[in-house]
Amino acid sequence: MDARLEDPIAAQLAAQPGEAARSRHQILWWRLASIALFCGAWEVAGRVPINLAFPTFSSTIMAFGEMVADGTMLKAYGLTLQPLVIGLIVSAVLGISTGVAMGLRKSVEWMAAPIFIVLQAAPVAAVIPMVTFVYGIGLTAKVISVCLLALPVIVLNSYKAVANVNPSLITMCSSFLGSRWQQIIKIILPDASPVIFAGLRLGIGAGFVGIILAELLITPTGIGDLITYHRAVANYGHMYAATASIIVFSAFTLSALQWVEESWIRPEKKRS
Amino acid sequence: MVAVTRKVPRAADPHGENMASLESIISVRGINKIYPGQVHALKDVDLDFSAGALTSLLGPSGCGKTTLLKIIAGLLEPSTGDVLVKGRKVTGPGPERAFVFQDFALMPWATVLRNVGFGLELRGVAEAKRHETARRYIEQVGLAGFEDKYPHELSGGMRQRVGLARALAVDADVLLLDEPFSAVDEQTRRKFQEDLLRLREVERKTFIFVTHSIEEAVYLSDRIVLLSRRPGRVSQVITPQIDRSGSPDEIRRDRAYLDTVEEIWQGLRHFVD
Questions:
Q1: Which residues in A lie closer than 8 A to residue B121 (C-beta atoms)?
Q2: Does residue B37 have a pLDDT over 60?
Q3: Domain ranges, residue A36
Q4: Domain check: are A194 and A67 in the same one?
Q5: How many CB atoms lie within 10 A of CB A129?
Q6: Which residues contact A157 (CB under 8 A, 6 or more apart)?
Q7: Complex ipTM
Q8: Which of A189-193, B236-240, B245-249 shows the highest mean pLDDT?
Q9: CA dist A258 to A34, A197, A271, Å?
């Protein structure tokens, strides 16, 4: 313990917690200020008004409250989340395992890479009417829409993550007699996890795009229905409330994912 | 050349007086390494490493010293020739050898404690047991109190101490160190060298040490193997006769130390353009 006190680095480390807490506070304030600025600008723009179809921030919030109170919001989310969650779980499980397999085995890489590279480049909105044609307008078509958008980016990120694992760590693992299996579980996956999670975040974002596209293009249900309906009856506050709520919901989902990564898989990132 | 130098094309040679044993623990027999593209990295290398000695592999950059160390470690396959560890042919990494990496090779997501115990973790040692062992070696390399830190919270020198503790923790007979101090600053490097000498007193192990620093090799080694430029060949084997009973400063001012450094430089300078 004596060595610890002498060491300037140790002293700095000991001083860190207080400083870190202070800077965390500061970051929080700046973030809140950014949100406040955005909402304020929205309110002003709505009051000018820049367009009759552009509601103020306050009327959007009121409309949101109204829709929560009468239960339409909850019902809409129930309808939207079902295909979204199924699609995202399928995409995550299938996408990560395919991507990791591509990174580990050349044959899988050569076979699968072209498919996903083409899929990622494809304008998927153009494919969705075809999906409807084959699978009808039910749950399956919507799940497939989500997967079409979310899967390629998850696969390609997982694949690149595994292909770019630090080779020195792999050598280290085998020099300490690690088996291939231990190498995958204890070195490759943790080292690849930041990029895999980056892919998951992009994939979830794309999945939200997929479900809203499906609800706007296939059949109006859930949040897509709220948006379409309120636009049709010129209820712009409600329409914006539905749109904004899905954006905020998506952002919170992504933050939750980041929290999971930092808490369970890469704890050191909380301390950087 | 001076009396301490002998040209040794093959076979073991006598060592310094403080050796635990003269028995050869690692034998390198007729090693050639040709990398793809006809790069001849090592040519007809024959060497013996005695148990308990610290041998340095020294030579100009690109002479294949790290290649030779990785072949001994079983991380690279020689094109021809064999490495024998305690008489058994090497086909891959083994429990009797542990490696210390130039770039530390620490897992950034794992604490010091887990990094040091990683070799034991891979061998299936129970958590309580491997933590106990890891703590002991963390203390021995002077990192007590840092068990729960992550590598990015440590300085370069401290990270390499973690790498050293990890290699010590698996209790291998032979430690293979690949330019372990090249990524740390000069002051840390000197402190590290002194600690390594002290550590050798405690841990009766065989060290094979790759370095491009003449001073470092002379300061630390019982025996120095000079490799020629590519293709790397054993050009000279030197056994410095340095009294290491004094303080680090006394050793660095010792006549034999300074003479050996100068002599090696004379031997190496014609390799340098």
A1: 186
A2: yes
A3: 1-50
A4: yes
A5: 10
A6: A99, A195, A196, A198, A199, A200, A202, A203
A7: 0.84
A8: A189-193
A9: 21, 8, 14
Residues A111, A201: one domain?
A: yes
Element (H, E) at A245: helix A236-260
Residues A229 and A181 in one domain: yes
pLDDT digit string, tens, across residues B197-219: 888 888 788 999 898 888 888 88
- In degrees rounded to 5, what are phi and psi of residue A57? -60, -45
Query: Are residues A176 and B98, on separate chains, in Cβ contact within 8 Å?
Result: yes
Residue B232 has pLDDT above 70, yes or no: yes
Report how far apart the first and last C-alpha atoms of chain A are (Å, whole number).
Answer: 24
Residue B269: its pLDDT value, please?
Answer: 76
Q: Please identify among residues 175-204 of chain A the ones whose CB lies closer than 8 Å to any CB of chain B.
A: 175-179, 182, 186-187, 190-191, 193
Size of interface A-B (CB pairs under 8 A): 78
Residues A121 and A189 in one domain: yes
Residues of chain A contacting B152 with CB distance shorter than 8 Å: 268, 271-272
Are the C-beta atoms of B28 and B83 separated by less than 8 Å? Answer: yes
Q: Are residues A6 and A123 in the same domain?
A: no
Q: Tell me if B228 sits within 8 A of B63, measured CB to CB.
A: yes
Looking at the structure, tell me whether residues A125 and A46 fall in a common domain: no
* Domains, chain B: 5-96+172-269 (3.40.50.300), 107-170 (no CATH)
Across the interface, whether the CB atoms of B107 and A191 are under 8 A apart is answered yes
> CATH number of the domain that A136 lies in?
1.10.3720.10
Q: Does the CB of A1 have a partner CB in chain B at under 8 Å?
A: yes
Fill in the amino acid letter for A181. W
Question: Per the structure, how many domains does chain A have?
Answer: 2
Q: Which class for A216: exposed (0-12), middle (13-18), buried (19 or more C-beta within 10 A)?
A: middle
Do residue A43 and residue A59 come from a single domain? no
- What integer pLDDT is reported at residue B273 of this predicted model? 61
* Whether pLDDT at B12 is above 90: no
Q: What was the pLDDT predicted at B1?
A: 36
Q: Mutation target for A interface from B76, B109, B168: give the one with most A CBs within 10 A.
A: B109
User: Is A23 in the same domain as A66?
Assistant: no
Give this prediction's pTM.
Answer: 0.81
Q: Write the residue in A173, A176, A267 that is nearest to B170 by C-beta.
A: A176
Binned average pLDDT, 10 residues per bin, chain A of 272 residues? 43 59 85 93 88 88 93 92 94 95 93 89 82 85 91 94 95 94 94 94 92 86 90 90 92 90 82 68
Q: Which of A172, A174, A195, A265 to mutate to test the interface with B (most CBs of B within 10 A)?
A: A172
